[in-house]
Amino acid sequence: MTSGTLLRLALTPVVLVGVVLLAMLLPELTGVDSARSVLAVRYADADPDPAVLAAIRADLGLDRPLPERVLDRLGRLCTGQLGTSWLSGEPVGERIGRAFQVSIGIVVAALVLSFVLGCAAGLLAARRPGSLVDRAVAGSTRLAAALPEFALAPLLVAVFAVGLDLLPSSGWHGPHNAVLPVAALVPVLAAPIAATMRARAAAMARENFAVAAEARGIGRFRLWTRHIAKPALPAVLSVLTYNAAGMIAGTATVEVVFDLPGLGRTLVDAVIAQDLPVVQVGLIVAVAMALLVGALGDALQLVVDPRTRRAAA
């Protein structure tokens, strides 16, 4: 596990560089005439006159050789010159920055809640294998794993926004607008965490050190939280890291359902409108966010597992 963790950490910047290069080549890879896209977005009723298209290509730098265009885009990206939206003329950095703030709040809240709830449910189930609580947790995890966020989100809207009128169904006006989106993301991630914690904790509870610690009179709460749950954390963090990227992708669906001005919704709208400057920067930020979450999870594994620390040293 140590070598795999270190390899993933080492490859993180390499993957990010590859995504940046891919994003810089999007105008060429999409096969779409960027000049025509700009003309259609800015001047919907304009006639695609060759002279006008040539002027737009010159303005976008599309009349220069490919290596020169890519180097220019990379240079502007490195200096923070992210350009403007073809659709609104708004600076891309400002638009993506606002969207990122919404998405990162939802993602962090969902990750923390999934980790806490999954670990707590797994420990409760492992304390009494075969009990009613164990069976209830097992059934709940199977149901949550089988119910993806794009199916759960409309159900939450129907029950809590339309039926009970307790929470808003759309928009972004404060923390209360994040409750249903986070609730739609948590179950699918908490389910594998609970299953992993249950399996690892139940196995740890049968080890000699746990039996001896209980015989010495250590309290059950201390035994389960410190001596049993802690050794199970590396496996739980591995599951969290593995599934976090998928959850970040699922955030885009949730943002569309709840009409949130987050990064996923912004990317979807930009792709539909062929607003390539927004797509390029949004893609880089989304991938960087997923890679950062994965890297943090891998780093935490090295911190909480003394075996990996010794092996890494």
Question: If you had to describe this structure to a student in words, what would you say it looks like?
Answer:
InterPro entries: MetI-like, MetI-like_sf. The chain crosses the membrane at residues 7-26, 100-125, 146-166, 178-197, 232-258, 278-300. It is a multi-pass membrane protein. Belongs to the binding-protein-dependent transport system permease family. It is built from 14 helices and no strands. Helix 3 packs across helix 4 and helix 11 (220-257) packs parallel to helix 12. The chain is mainly alpha-helical and 313 residues long.
CATH class of the largest domain: Mainly Alpha
Query: Number of domains in the coordinates?
Result: 2
Fraction in beta strands: under 5%
Unreliable runs, pLDDT <50, ≥5 residues?
Answer: none
Number of helices: 14
Order of helices and strands: HHHHHHHHHHHHHH
Topology (elements, then pairings):
Blueprint (H helix, E strand, L loop, with lengths): L1 H23 L1 H4 L4 H9 L7 H11 L5 H13 L13 H36 L4 H15 L2 H15 L15 H27 L2 H8 L4 H38 L5 H11 L2 H29 L1 H7 L1
Helix pairs in contact: 1-13, 3-4, 6-7, 6-9, 6-11, 6-12, 6-13, 7-9, 8-9, 8-11, 9-11, 11-12, 11-13, 12-13, 13-14
